[in-house]
Amino acid sequence: QQPVQSPQAVILREGEDAVINCSSSKALYSVHWYRQKHGEAPVFLMILLKGGEQKGHDKISASFNEKKQQSSLYLTASQLSYSGTYFCGTAPSNDYKLSFGAGTTVTVRA
Amino acid sequence: EAGVAQSPRYKIIEKRQSVAFWCNPISGHATLYWYQQILGQGPKLLIQFQNNGVVDDSQLPKDRFSAERLKGVDSTLKIQPAKLEDSAVYLCASSLDGAGDQETQYFGPGTRLLVL
Q1: What is the CATH number of domain A4-109?
Q2: Do residue B40 and residue A96 have CB atoms under 8 angstroms apart?
Q3: CB contact under 8 A, A42 and B55
Q4: All domains of chain B in start order, with CATH
Q5: Rounded to whole angstroms, how far apart are CA atoms B8 and B23?
Q6: pLDDT digits (tens, 9 = 90+) for B45-95
Q7: Minimum Cα–Cα distance from A52: chain B residue
Q8: The pLDDT value given to residue B17
Q9: Interface A:B, Cβ pairs < 8 A
Q10: Average model confidence (pLDDT) for chain B?
Q11: Which residues of chain B does A100 touch, with a Cβ-Cβ cutoff of 8 Å?
């Protein structure tokens, strides 16, 4: 079952913060976050595992609430390079089979 | 370290024609995936290989799509005959055969298919 992402799109000015949410109706083993720029392949950002800690990558971090079957991606002090579509991929078990959400398009303006 | 390689990058065909895509995963990666990404949507898994065996092909339209990974390294995905709704980007990804952080999937640049 495909996870649900919200919001669908967000427009930011440089330096502003944003939160992207990813919710699943099934229990999750892992959540994977990717960013895809127009016409390019999805690029891996981070993976969060059941029982694991919140992760961070530069000023992008994520959390995983296992009880709520949700993950949130936090964009802090956004930069122009953060523009793109962010996808969450969820796996119900450690069989590496991901279901991806429809994506959240982030536009950062100067 | 070289990334996932795919070819061709673009392909335009007419409906009912056949087409094939090629993927070479990252060296040492045992698991290979083919995804279909329709414009405006997230990638949808078509087939997953572990070495040269199929792990999951439940979402592969088997009446027209086929895939193989004969020597457990590179792979081909074929569509025969193509339909208009097959227009999409076909992404190949690979991952190490492991658990935890090793299940990270790395994507290739994709093949953009347009069926007219």
Answers
A1: 2.60.40.10
A2: no
A3: no
A4: 5-95 (2.60.40.10)
A5: 9
A6: 999 998 889 988 999 999 999 999 988 899 999 999 999 999 999 999 999
A7: B100
A8: 97
A9: 57
A10: 92
A11: 42-44
